[in-house]
């Protein structure tokens, strides 16, 4: 199993000779980075001949303050994929097992298999986490359990009660990876802060990223939060100068830019509601997402539909190839204009194809 990146806008421009391409296939921010983040990166680029110095330590201080943990609990990575891989490498040995609810982010499987450990997949129950199924999959050999809150590609969140039930039932030899890549998109009334579980001295590592709501995917900065002993094990495995100074400074500036964060949250909340309502009104089954993407399930002819969207310059993500979820189409929440265009394209496709079906 390898990571398959979403289609790029360049590919589509070349393929169909299009000028504008709407890229809603990779859960990237439609807003772009904070201007402060760009400025910080540019300023650092002028000292690009100097190895990174204090930047990582300073970002760690800010992350610790932001997350409400001690600095010893913070580990900064080259994207959170990097943190996910180093957790697997630090914890797993050949013969161990990890529990991966499916469909979910493919890096859990890649990280597991890189160590010679085995993935035990637990299918979702009607697209939601199957807590009973997850607990039933635990064996003597289980070392890691991956929970994504909210999940990619379903967008569905876990409740505090569900997470607590899992944590209460797990034996001490299982570490829970709580991937909060989309945590900032969750509505306040449904939001669960994974850090609470670290404070309760549970066996939990929280991973977060600057790639999604902070719109810094190209900079490659993510972080993990864990008990100091595990965090220091993870830090000790990293090569020196692991993340570049422009990236670290951009992340630091992004973290301080609350106005940009709130604008992203508002745009996403409005766009997510618009997509959910309009696509549901087209007769489609759209899962109630808490992330920056919506998933349409039980779709017919997804491949044809995807090709028709591509020909109109629209990239979305069929979930068959990348997540093993057939008949699904994941759409990243875009700008208002982008959302309207994707809905119009889908409405057109369905009005043309319902008659003959
Ligand atoms: C996008 C995503 C990430 C973030 O990856 P980065 O390496 O930080 O860019 C992590 N987990 C999930 C579930 C994601 O969808």
Which percent band covers the strand fraction? Answer: 15-25%
Number of helical segments? 14
Largest sheet: 7 strands, mixed
Instruction: Provide mean pLDDT, rounded.
Output: 96
Radius of gyration (CA) equals: 20 Å
- Spatially, the strands of the biggest sheet line up as 2-8-7-6-5-3-4
β-strand number = 13
Point out poorly predicted stretches: none
- The percent range for helix content is 40-55%
- Oligomerization state: single chain
Shape: globular
Pattern of helices and strands: HEHHEHEHEHEHEHEEHHHEEHEEHEH
| N-to-C CA distance | 35 Å
Which structural class do you get from the secondary structure elements?
alpha/beta
Ions, cofactors and other ligands present here are:
pyridoxal-5'-phosphate
Walk me through the structure.
This protein has 357 residues and is an alpha/beta fold. It has 14 helices and 13 strands. Strands 2-8-7-6-5-3-4 form a 7-stranded mixed sheet, sandwiched between helices. It has a 4-stranded antiparallel sheet with strand order 9-10-13-12. α7 links the parallel β5 and β6. α4 runs parallel beside α5 (107-114) and α11 (258-281) packs parallel to α14 (336-354). Bound molecules: pyridoxal-5'-phosphate (PLP). The site of pyridoxal-5'-phosphate (PLP) has 14 residues, from α4.
């Amino acid at each position: 199993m390898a990571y398959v990146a979403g289609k790029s806008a360049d590919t589509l421009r070349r393929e169909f000779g299009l000028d504008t391409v709407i890229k809603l296939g990779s859960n990237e921010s439609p807003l772009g980075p904070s201007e402060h983040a760009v400025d910080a990166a540019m300023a650092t680029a002028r000292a690009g001949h100097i190895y990174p110095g204090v930047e990582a330590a300073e970002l760690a201080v800010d992350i610790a303050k932001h997350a409400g943990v001690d600095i010893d609990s913070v580990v900064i990575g080259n994207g959170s994929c990097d943190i996910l891989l180093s957790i697997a490498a630090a914890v797993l040995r050949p013969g161990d097992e990890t529990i991966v609810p499916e469909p979910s982010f493919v890096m859990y499987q890649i990280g597991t298999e890189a160590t010679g450990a085995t993935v035990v997949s637990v299918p979702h129950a009607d697209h939601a986490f199957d807590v009973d199924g997850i607990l039933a999959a635990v064996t003597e050999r289980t070392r890691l359990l991956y929970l994504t809150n909210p999940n990619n590609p379903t967008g569905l969140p876990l409740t505090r009660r569900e997470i607590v039930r899992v944590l209460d039932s797990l034996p001490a030899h299982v570490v829970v990876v709580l991937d909060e890549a989309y945590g900032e998109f969750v509505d306040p009334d449904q939001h669960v802060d994974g850090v609470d579980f670290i404070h309760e001295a549970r066996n939990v590592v929280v991973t977060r990223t600057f790639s999604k709501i902070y719109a810094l995917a190209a900079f490659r900065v993510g972080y993990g939060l864990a008990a100091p002993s595990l965090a220091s094990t993870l830090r000790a495995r990293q090569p020196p100068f692991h993340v570049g100074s422009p990236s670290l400074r951009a992340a630091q500036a992004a973290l301080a830019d609350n106005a940009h964060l709130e604008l992203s949250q508002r745009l996403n909340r409005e766009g997510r509601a618009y997509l959910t309502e309009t696509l549901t009104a087209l007769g489609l089954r759209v899962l109630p997402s808490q992330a920056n993407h919506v998933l349409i399930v039980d779709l017919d002819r997804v491949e044809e539909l995807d090709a028709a969207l591509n020909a109109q310059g629209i990239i979305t993500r069929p979930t068959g190839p990348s997540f093993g979820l057939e008949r699904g189409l994941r759409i990243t929440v875009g700008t208002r204009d982008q959302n309207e265009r994707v809905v119009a394209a889908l409405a057109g496709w369905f009005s043309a194809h319902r008659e003959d079906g």
